[in-house]
Amino acid sequence: MTEAGVAGVEVSSWSAFFVPARTSGDIVRKIHADTVAALAEPAVRGKLEAGGVAVIGSTPDELAAFLGSEMDKWGQVIKQASIKAQ
Prior knowledge:
Number of strands: 0
Shape: flat
Radius of gyration: 17 Å
Distance between the termini: 22 Å
Mean pLDDT: 91
Number of helices: 3
Helix content: 40-55%
Order of helices and strands: HHH
Largest sheet: none
């Protein structure tokens, strides 16, 4: 981003699972538990890490906090660059 004229912004990619807003807590907890279990499997984790992926497996609350920080960060970039939706 510095090369593009936007100082102080770190860029990375990430992936997450999302469900519709009214999905029951039981289903969210089940998806989270199954995802964390899969990421803990040595074969799965090893393949991901070999591909350069940092395996985190955060909780839904941690993901929500991360998304908030991403929106704050990219909101500033959008404002500084005067980006408009078309």
